[in-house]
Amino acid sequence: MSGLGMIDAEAEDFSDALAVPLRPHRLRKVSDVVALLKHGGAWDDLDWLVLTAQDSEDASLRNLRNPAQGLTPVGGPTFAADRGWLGNGADAYLGGGDVYADLELTGWAGPAGRTAMRRVQSPHVSDRFVAFYAGRNLTPGSVALIDNALARYLDALG
């Protein structure tokens, strides 16, 4: 728990793993996402959750479920605070490396296959990639909850 009231322990661990910890208002927003996902039962379904719309590149690349894991910029995509990453997807993108191998995916799979990976586009800037999540046990209900939590997070950023 931090001076902000109840902050989710996993959000706090995420912040502590960063080179520069999240600022208090950002930590609160990340904690709210984690708490909503836990309350709705979707947190344990996730293997990866990367909130690329962060205020630092380091935070934008880390896996919230396991901060030791992260995405890697390949080919020079550009980062904008609170807006995420911009790349053409062919030679400028965020590489997942072991994400794809670990989840045994060759492409994007839907919840019907119980394994899903989703990239979330910015509602404000259509060519920005603002979040990424993946899981082996995602159900349609957990996908809807995750999408809702991410929409709330993005709305809070303004």
User: What is the count of distinct domains?
Assistant: 1
- Into which percentage range does the β-strand content fall? 15-25%
Shape: globular
**Major β-sheet profile:** 3 strands, antiparallel
Structural class: alpha+beta
Number of strands: 7
Strands ordered across the widest β-sheet: 1-7-6
Could you characterize what this model shows?
This protein has about 160 residues and is of the alpha+beta class. It has one domain (about 10-155). The protein has five helices and seven strands, in the order H-H-E-H-E-E-E-E-H-E-E-H. It has helices at about 10-15, 25-40, 55-60, 100, 140-155; strands spanning about 50, 70-75, 80, 85, 95, 115-120, 130-135. The strands form three sheets. It has a three-stranded antiparallel β-sheet with strand order 1-7-6, with helices on one face. A two-stranded antiparallel ribbon has the order 2-5. A two-stranded antiparallel ribbon has the order 3-4. Helix 1 crosses helix 2 (about 25-40) and helix 2 (about 25-40) packs antiparallel against helix 5 (about 140-155). It is globular. It starts with 8 loop residues before the first helix and ends with a helix.
Give a summary of the structure in a few sentences:
The chain has 158 residues and is of the alpha+beta class.
What are the SSEs and their pairings?
Layout: H1 9-17, H2 24-40, E1 48-50, H3 57-61, E2 72-74, E3 78-80, E4 84-86, E5 93-95, H4 98-102, E6 116-121, E7 129-135, H5 140-157
Helix pairs in contact: 1-2, 2-5
